[in-house]
Specification:
171 residues, globular
């Protein structure tokens, strides 16, 4: 799964149109133009396709976090230059104010049952001995620790799947 797939899935999931995406980027101090918006939404076979960088995806996810949780005091977050599946999952967890139990339920929706310990290993620092890299789905017969970001996104194809996380957090 490339960054564009994640961008398209989240954009579709929440019905984000051009003006909304521009606002998400602006909330983090960055600009996006219509060519980028359309290029990121395109497929690799299309002429308009523009591959979304890790940094651009991090900015987009930071914008979703700011929209849903409110801005933090001080400057906007600095986007990561490289972003892993673990970081993407962590940002989604933050944006939707999910508890571990909520995430376990979502993984269970696509028959990817994880223990709380397995899930917490995805959120540890990479230097921690129990850290587990959240792999992408390569085959339907993966092990439980290979349940990937694709499974998480597949489990949330419609906003009602995460309806209790769909409203911005109240302060």
């Amino acid at each position: 799964m490339i960054n564009n797939d994640i961008y398209r899935r989240l954009r579709y999931l929440f019905g984000y149109q051009y003006d909304h995406v521009v606002a998400l980027f602006a909330s983090t101090g960055f600009e996006v133009n219509e060519a980028q918006y359309k290029g990121w939404a395109g497929t690799e076979e299309e002429d308009r396709f523009i591959r979304m960088t890790d940094r651009e995806l991090a900015i987009f996810l930071n914008g979703i976090i700011i929209e849903r949780r409110g801005p933090q005091e001080g400057p906007p977050p600095v986007p990561e230059e490289e972003i892993s599946n673990n970081t993407i999952l962590r940002k989604l967890k933050i944006a939707f104010n999910m508890r571990s139990e909520d995430m376990l339920e979502i993984f269970a929706l696509v028959d990817r049952k994880l223990s709380p310990h397995e899930l917490s290993a995805f959120f540890r620092k990479p230097s921690h001995k129990s850290y587990r890299y959240l792999k992408e789905e390569r085959a339907c017969g993966c092990t439980r620790t290979e349940s990937g970001l694709q499974f998480f996104l597949d489990a949330t194809p419609y906003p009602q799947s995460i309806a209790h996380h769909n409203a911005p957090c109240s302060k």
